[in-house]
Amino acid sequence: MDNIPLKLRQHQHALGQCKRCPDMTGPPVYGEACHSPIMLIGQAPGSREIEQHRPFAWTAGKTLFKWFADIDIEENWFRQHIYMSAICRCYPGKPASQSGGDRVPSAVEIENCSHWLKQELQLLRPRLVIPVGKLAIKHFIRCNTLSDVIGQCHPVNSHNLQFDVIPLPHPSGVSRWPVTEPGKTLLKQAIRLIQQHEAMLSLC
User: What span, in angstroms and rounded, lies between the C-alpha atoms of 164 and 145?
Assistant: First the structure.
């Protein structure tokens, strides 16, 4: 009997009570408790994701799911079949400078939240991980520039597991990288690699 969704729900119930980071705004956000061979891992939710309590629920999500719509993967299907996680689960707020975008979580906040991600990786034992944005990408592979890593499939040994990593840029409107070259072409390559990966083919 497949009891992974039950274990994930129990995990998420515990995660939902987490208040380890005083400068973060909760409650913690997580995706549907689906037993999937694929994990999509974002950076941290925005304020709208906290309000709606679902990952990629606002503008960045619309862009992200538009990328997948180009390979005929619809948002509701994606949410039901691919486990959506993040490096940090609460909203970090705006930077003190009030510059564009949200505050980058601190090293302490990332470490505090890493416990939850490790548990999910061990429960799901994914064959494909899709990190979205540089913070998430760096958790799994070295990334000096997005152009060095996007558009490629990277075999990874991490958390005592072996899986492939196909990174994506962050779909925030603040970044021009996905809509200018070489980012535009590399993004298309990455989405095609995800479409062709055996973990995705096993779901479709």
Answer: 19
Q: How do the pLDDT tens digits run along the chain, 204 residues long? A: 479 999 999 999 999 999 999 999 999 999 999 999 999 999 999 999 999 999 999 999 999 999 999 999 999 999 999 999 999 999 999 988 766 678 999 999 999 999 999 999 999 999 999 999 999 999 999 999 999 999 999 999 988 899 999 999 999 878 899 999 999 999 999 999 999 999 999 998
Pairing of strands 128-131, 38-42: parallel
pTM here?
A: 0.96
Tokens standing for residue 25 = 């705004």
- Structure tokens belonging to residue 131: 């990190």
**Residues 94, 103: contact at Cβ < 8 Å?**
yes
Residue 55 tokens, joined: 């990952």
